[in-house]
Amino acid sequence: MSNVKKTYTDAELKNMSDAELTALGAEMDGVTVAFRKPRFEVPNDPADKSASIGVGIWALVSILFAVAFLAVYIFWPWEFKTHGDEGLAWHLLYTPLLGLTSGISILALGVAVVQYVKKILPEEVSVQRRHDGASDEIDRRTLTALLNDSWSTSTLGRRKTLMGLLGGAAVLFGLTVVAPLGGTIKNPWKVRHELDYSGDGTLWTSGWTLVEKGVKLYLARDTGAVAQMHTSQSGSHMTTQGVTRLVRVRPEDLAAGGMETVFPLAEGDVNDGELYDPEKDVYEAQMHSIHGNRNAVMLIRLRNSDARKVIEREGQEDFHYGDYYAYSKICTHIGCPTSLYEQQTNRILCPCHQSQFDALQYAKPVFGPAARALPQLPITVDEEGYLIAAGNFVEPVGPAFWERKS
Question: What pTM was estimated for this model as a whole?
């Protein structure tokens, strides 16, 4: 046990210097300073200046590369490019440059801090005995003095240039971490482009919104087709001409109790069945539909006995076509794909966080973290017997946000 006196009046504490409070605080915390020696005992030691310059150089390197990172992040051409596009080489350098500049900035700051500790801070060996329980008032008072002593012995206060460099490097390091988060912040109301298979940039639009513009949208399944080898007099090359990635779905294509993932397919992008044209190239347009992040829909054909038990959602009683129901595949929890359908229980399952939705009760959540039903797509059949969208979703697809009322 320590025999250090712990009861002092406010007047006694106020009359103590920082050095006395520091020594007292160390003793009260059970700390024994076994060894302390300044790195540079002689004022204006050339070695002191050399050490400061070395640390300053590393801090400056950190600052320069942090600024370079921010410049690349803000001004470099980041828009996606593919083979054949102008500026592809510059685009391919974007991510490597972000990694290189941020990595060097962080590394240089780390080296600067290590060099400062190793070459400038006083050499010290201290031993502390641990104790349990909360600290006394006197311990809290002396802590401030200990912190002041740490700042004083660090000599950083009198090294204004070095302090500015290290501080600037630390601030810019923080920006290299925080700045990329800015790319995830978007105005949910801002229209960014003309409505297409990806919507128009707002959170409540998708490829299915095209139906509101008078576009006939088929429910189409993905065939997984890829570019094919084409041989001509000029040689062989890959082509997507005549390749159909999305094909229209008829009711008879789905067995009772079955499920199919479908995507919106505009009438002008159809290339299957009686409309197949081997010279037509719709592959890119169809891939845009597949890649639309709110386009995937689960088309479910209930068994007739189960369909008679369905509880329709108010106002959506005519959204289904016979035993066929179409629900958004985007989970209302955090947007994972609800890719599992349990035929025996008629439950739709999200494998990410185990949310479950009842297909017999307007895809209402019955288990897991999801709190909202999956939006239902109104469907019907056209005069040729293909399933089509009878309208758009009446609510935003995906995780909840403030515009949702369901």
Answer: 0.62
